[in-house]
Amino acid sequence: MYKVMLVDDDYPVLELLSETIEWDQLGVSLQSTHENGASAFEKAMEDMPDILITDIGMPKMNGIQLTKQLKDRNPNLQVAILSCHSDFEYAHQALKLQVQDYLVKDTFDPEDLCLLIKKFKDTLDEQNSKIIKQIQLQQMLKRNKESVKERFIKKTMDPSVMNEREWMSEAKSLGLDLDHTGYIGSHAIIHNFRLIKEQFKSEDTLNFAIHNVVTEAIEGCCPGAVHFQLGAREMFVFFPASLILKKNALTEARESMKRIQHALKKSLNITLSFITGEGCSNLLEFKQELSLLKNCTHQSFYMKPGTIDERKDTQAAPSEDLFSMYDEAAAEMRELIMLRDEDRIHYYVNKWISFLEEKQFPPEMVKDWVLKLLLDLRVKLHALQFFRSNHTVEHIHNEIFDIQLLEELKTWLIHYFNSTLSIVKDVYDQTRRKEILEAFQYVAMNIEKKISLDEVSSHLYLNPSYFSRLFKKEVGETFVEYVTKMKLTRAKELLEQTADSVGKICERLGYDNQSYFIKIFKNYVGVTPIEYRGVRPKEVR
Length: 541
Description:
- By secondary structure, this protein is of the alpha/beta class.
- It has helices at about 10-20, 35-45, 65-75, 90-95, 110-155, 165-175, 195-200, 205-220, 245-270, 285-295, 295-300, 325-340, 345-360, 365-385, 395-400, 405-430, 435-445, 455-460, 465-475, 480-495, 500-510, 515-525, 530-535; strands spanning about 1-5, 30-35, 50-55, 80-85, 100-105, 180-190, 225-230, 235-240, 270-275, 310.
- The strands form 2 sheets. Strands 2-1-3-4-5 form a 5-stranded parallel beta sheet, with helices on both faces.
- The N and C termini lie far apart (about 80 Å).
């Protein structure tokens, strides 16, 4: 709604206009009234009106002066002079200031002002429509240019042979002039992309906002630099440089990167990290620089937010096997959920993230490891009747493998465990038979020990016979059957994740007789432990 300011040193006139004109029905609001130009000017500096209706002769600042001051600041301001002066000189001054109308109080009718305000509103609507169309056109042109640049950089990353002359011509049209200068390449990655994306209406909007901020930052610190966005999550920035003095060129490029980081952090609260290349001066070197930077997935996965690092060669895989730590991590996750201890979420997540960061395992291996941990935990929680999830296995898989940075994985895991623990608590609080849930928890926490019905009923302060009947009624199977099922589920995990012999696993789970263990395993799983593991008998220790 457009804002109207009334200014007149004749208070009865202000009162008349304020009360007799139905401002809301005209589609405008009466912002304020003032008895002198100075007061009106002060208010306008806080909140500029769209329409000004002012007298001419007033103390401190007259209407002509007020109009000139506000028009200088808001050229689209619609102004009507309301005065008792019909003198030509005043009218002439008003016309010079492009005042839209000049009303003489002696012949004034409030209806005339209503008609004038409607005309002002139509004019403002038309102006705003033109401005919106211009902005939309500018945005479309910018987006089109960015689409061209994105297609260009993707085409350049394609290993197929291309026409060098055509490529150089297109590169020059986009700002890359390899005929006359070298470039230091860099690959920029946005941190916490998932959280940032949620703050914008769409990824396209985020992409456009990032483009505008980066473009402005580059124009301010390094006008010859060119950036190519790959979606909203990452971009390549090439800084012009003399490769003869490469050390100086890298230093200057790093300063420009810091300014881009600062601009994005200040404007959009986005944290950016850079990996820098070695420089290029022709098409072949440019393609190589792109390829090497794009394939730095291992290095970028472990980057800290807001850092600038030189590209490193691919590291050798660590000698330690990540999946050898699976059993310990799975046990701690079960403990975390069973104890329903929110305070330990950060402790456990930080512990394992620090371990992964120290060992620098390949990112895809890390994601596989985390996914298996969560899916196994999910199965166990379902078996315990602790868990109801709206997220499918496919959803969890896609979320984890969409993560590109270890810090993002840390944030995601904390959120996931908080959410899971909340669901577990709700189930626990809503269940009438908490004794059964306590029994589930006791079994889960002592799965590698001998567990008897008498032992658990004593732990719950219940009569063994009563507990046995209650468990069968609530769960649909006997307590012994349930414990056997959970122990065999654990046996499958140990067969998959450890190199322990069948005998050792049997002993570990509290079974004294290996033959009996093999028999019940086959009855439950359909194959023997050795067959389940998929190895030949002679390989079993």
